[in-house]
Amino acid sequence: MDHGTRSESILEMVVHRKLDRDREEHLLRYELSSSDNTLELNREEFGPVGLRPKHLRDISDHFTAIECSPSSKQSLKEVTEALEIFGLRLSMLLPEDLRQLLWSLRDRVKHLLIQSTDLWIPWELTLLTGRADNGEVAPSQFLSEAFALSQWVPKTKKHDRLPLNRIALVAPSPNSASLRSEVEYVLGLQTEERQVDRIGAERDLILSKMRSIQEEQTYDGWHFAGHGGLPGRGLEPEKAYIRLNDDNDLQPDHLLGIARDLGVPKPPLIFLNACRTGRGGSALSGSGGWAIRFINAGAGAFIGTYWNVEGRSSLRFAEAFYESLLAGTTIAEAVREARLKIKEAGDPTWLAYTLFADPIARGGGQTNASVNSVPVDQTRLNEISEVKEPTPATLHPSEAAQELGTNRPEDVTVENRRTESPSIDAPQSQEAESHRIDAPRWQPPTVIKKQSQPIGQGRLSSLAPVLAVFIIMLLYLYCVAP
Which residues pair with 354 in a beta bridge? Predict the structure, then answer.
């Protein structure tokens, strides 16, 4: 299947859950929409399908059965069979007509976004089955294999730009060859335009960095490499942890104090490349787990894992993901490409990853001008761009707004908030240079304050015609008066 020939539009599936008190179960209803008008999908409704509390326990048990580690005695055949059985059972949560429609659209649409508050359902593992055009049974495909798939939380702002100009790497002291290689790879992502800092694997230090709202001290990418876990059967996602130095763990509840500071001023990509970091579930505050905690704190995207992942495969996944994302591929397609590149390794790590993001978000300063773009008044931009090269605007917001002919002062003060004009006399330090963001992006127009004229000169020149008319009228009245 060639994804390059498919539509760049987004297929969006919204999942609604409502309690049916008479049947003592929850009902799932679905709405399917697409930005491609030729598909004629605008909140098309499907369902309902019953959802019982035991489904959560069943999913946890299946995760346990799929767990893969170097010491696992499961054969590849057994793991593959367990995944397919799990996928078929998950597909029963979708109405039959919806399953058939998704199967028919897999060759026509590239991106699939699923919005649901039930973050514990691993939609990526849903197995689609169907027939080929010639009527023969076609090879089944997992949903995350058929589509560039991502999830998101309803009523939460999505972000379509992930600059990755300043990445924080958190990793405890490496105790394996694959972890050392991952640390070296992520540090190697640094370029003249991109800074990568290794942050000490200490909880207080990490949280203080995440709370910072000063642009020169914030990170738009966080990569965690190391060991993660979730005790017991995995039914309590708030007890998940990432192991730091000195057995000091980081847990989802530690993010509650960050509020939304993590997303100021740039919502970051969070990549937890450790075991069991992608599971969700119920908590006292609603949904629990790493994904919802980071999204509520302001993250622009989140990547985690459902089960234990093999070290070498997780390293290759990270390498393939960053290579695609930084080359301009959408984040959902970058995850899909990384999955397929490590699929041949033979372990289930390729299906372990889950992505929460706007599926068409791009990294490395790329934007989505071709997808859901907003028309731009090019004439107005051309007029503004003719202003000659100056220092950043120094007018008061109200004055600058008058200069541009707008009543919105914030339109012309963005540059002042984001960057400071370097002093001509004081050279920039090497550290300051490393923080410079050179990724291509639109820059707000700079406004030059008009030169003031000597007092009276401008006013007299503007009053001259009025004075002349007044004098002529006085002479006329003097001459014709009796």
Answer: 304
> Which pLDDT value is given to residue 80?
81
CA distance 459 to 452: 12
pLDDT for position 69: 44
8 Å CB contact between 166 and 363: no
User: Of 326, 251, 353, 350, whose CA–CA distance to 294 is shortest?
Assistant: 251
Which helix (H) or strand (E) segment holds residue 197: the answer is strand 195-199
345 DSSP 8-state letter: T
d(CA 353, CA 335): 8
CA angle 406, 411, 413 (to 5 degrees): 120
Which among 83, 89, 90 has a CA at the least distance from the CA of 63? 83
Nearest CA among 263, 353, 255 for reference residue 299:
263
Q: What is the DSSP string of 282-326?
A: EETTEEESHHHHHHHHT-SEEEEESS---HHHHHHHHHHHHHHHH
Beta pairing class for 228-229 and 241-243:
antiparallel
Each residue of 151-179: pLDDT tens digit?
999 999 999 999 999 999 999 987 789 99
Residues of the chain with pLDDT under 50: 1-4, 68-71, 369-370, 372-460
CA atoms of 118 and 116, how far apart (whole Å): 5
Residue pair 275/308 in contact (Cβ under 8 Å)? The answer is yes
Helix (H, G, I), strand (E, B) or coil at 203: helix
Q: What is the DSSP pairing of strand 221-225 with strand 269-273?
A: parallel
Query: Would you state the CATH architecture of domain 161-363?
Result: 3-Layer(aba) Sandwich (3.40)
Token pair, residue 457, equals 């000169």
Supply the pLDDT for residue 55. 72
What residue ranges do the domains of the chain occupy? 3-152, 161-363
- Please give the pLDDT value at position 263: 72
